Amino acid sequence: MWREFQCQPDQRLRERLVLHYAPLVKYVAGRVGTGLPTHVDVGDLVQSGIFGLLDAIEKFDPERGLRFETYAMQRIRGAILDDLRSQDWVPRVVRSRLREAERALERLGARLHRTPTDAELADELGISIDDLRDLYGQLQLTSVVALEDLVSAGKDSGSLVDTLPDDDAVDPVAVLVDRDNRRQLAEAIAQLTERDRIVVSLYYFESLTLAEIGKVLGVTESRVSQLHTRAVLRLRARLTEQASV
């Protein structure tokens, strides 16, 4: 079907491909929707994801040797995240608190030369530990993020999907940049607390949902969401600090 579509990309073949790969959209929408507020309709996420799937079908080149599912899932996720961001459904006060928390993490990281504890962050913000945990709960609205967005924190770079190299034309510079990005991300993750590292590993690398991670750790899904938010904030602060060095 792909060979036929490549030779003659008509509407009939496009619709067949969309129907064939539609389950990918539902899967990605479900993953992104985990931890979002209840008023965010997964159906709306699926609708946004369909546009990402269509874009992937139009731009996919089978000759590059990349599996379409891998390419499409990145495009679908990107389309969903772009739509969520464009809606600006996070209250201004929450975004303001996010900026305050990120600046506090950067200050503490530079001063302590390590990842600050919750107690240290709460003291820096002038709030209690309980208030900080409530803040994590509010900030989970802003933690819809792809891991590649964390890698590019503080850098002027586009999507990793848009820069995937041709298997037959390896770019040495791209290899070095990718290797450096992975090194920085690994270093930042290594500086997280053990529990935060587990959450990041299970969520981003093992593709577990927040509910499934909660069962592994023996805590509630809400608590896992707080841990995920904390980990994202700390990774973003650390990577931004590295990029500015």
UniProtKB/TrEMBL annotation:
Per the UniProt record, the lineage of the source organism begins with: Bacteria, Bacillati, Actinomycetota, Actinomycetes, Pseudonocardiales
Q: Which UniProt keywords apply?
A: DNA-binding, Sigma factor, Transcription, Transcription regulation
Q: Does the keyword Transcription apply?
A: yes
What's the family? Belongs to the sigma-70 factor family.
Cite the RNA polymerase sigma-70 domain residue spans from the record.
Answer: 44-57, 209-235
* Record's protein name: RNA polymerase sigma factor
Q: What does this protein do?
A: Sigma factors are initiation factors that promote the attachment of RNA polymerase to specific initiation sites and are then released.
